[in-house]
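During the reporting period the student researcher (J.K.) took over the structure-prediction task from the postdoctoral fellow and processed the backlog of single-chain submissions. One of the processed entries is reproduced below for the supervisory committee.
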Amino acid sequence: MSCSLSTHVLDTGAGRPAAGVSVALVRDGNVVTTAATDADGRARLADDLVAGTYSVVFDPPSRFFTRVELQVELESGHYHVPLLVSEYGCVAYRGS
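J.K. obtained the following C-alpha cells:
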C-alpha cells in the first residue's frame, strides 16, 4: 500500500497563507522528510509512503502555538492535512 501527504498552512490572524513554515514528517521517532511551505502556504511532504502512523510537526507563525504536532494514520491514497493557525487558536482537519 502506497500513500502520499501534503499540507496547507493558513495564518488566520493575518488572513493569508503562511509561507516559509517548517513542516516535518516523523515516523517512529525518525524524521522521514522536511519541507517549507511555499508562497501559497502549501507543501507536498512525501509520495510513496508506507502505510502507518506518522506525526506531522509544524513550526507555525504564532507566538503562542510554537509547535503543533498531529499524529495521523495513513493507509493507501493521498492525504491532505491543512493547519489554520493564529495567535488565538489552531485547527487541523483532513482535507481532500
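The committee noted the following: The radius of gyration is 13 Å.
J.K. will present the remaining backlog at the next meeting.
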